[in-house]
Amino acid sequence: xxxxxxxxxxxxxxxxxxxxxxxxxxxxxxxxxxxxxxxxxxxxxxxxxxxxxxxxxxxxxxxxxxxxxxxxxxxxxxxxxxxxxxxxxxxxxxxxxxxxxxxxxxxxxxxxxxxxxxxxxxxxxxxxxxxxxxxxxxxxxxxxxxxxxxxxxxxxxxxxxxxxxxxxxxxxxxxxxxxxxxxxxxxxxxxxxxxxxxxxxxxxxxxxxxxxxxxxxxxxxxxxxxxxxxxxxxxxxxxxxxxxxxxxxxxxxxx
Length: 255
Fold this sequence. Notes:
It is a single chain. Helix 5 crosses helix 6. The protein is built from 11 helices and 10 strands. It has helices at residues 40-47, 70-77, 95-99, 101-106, 111-124, 140-153, 170-187, 198-204, 222-226, 231-237, 244-252; strands spanning 2-11, 14-24, 29-33, 55-60, 63-64, 80-83, 158-162, 190-195, 207-212, 215-220. The longest helix has 18 residues, at 170-187. By secondary structure, the chain is an alpha/beta fold.
């Protein structure tokens, strides 16, 4: 479903992604792990075509999105749902208007069908009867669910999650993880989850891939990653203060 080959991206003189390679099979959930600021969200933005590579290719369903015409890229994006880290809800719109926003903007859907699709999406994320509320009236966890409902309301083939459990309490985080798993099973979508929350990564991922210094340095099942013999991966997944990651940081630190 998604194939990334030798992807390189600079911001100024800083190389964020360095000949990165990754394949994600159709219908699977791939979790991209790594430290904050390592380029995980930058990778997501390349998959959806918000950013273009300086070199390398990103293919979705066999199509190189950097070479697609604007109209074709727009059509492809309608098949990709994006769940942003902060939810990115419109404060001036109700929950129902937020969830149905994509349908309203891009399709001429009859009002009755629109309402049915919105209610269906809200039911899938266990939020019944809140369509008339505004984002300011919602908890952090509810905002995350509404953002997810907005993504699935378009019935996408791919869902991208940017730090889905950041900023919520452990119980809410666990419910979001369970929701991601259930939606994957029900909708049969391909999912890409970006996180540094290892509990979430182990819970939702079929495959985990660690991003470090611009490259994917390890891939495997949750069990394989947990039992890794790679010292960099071992330090990260176990949350250790001492190890090759911090030694590298200390070596380059300016005092």
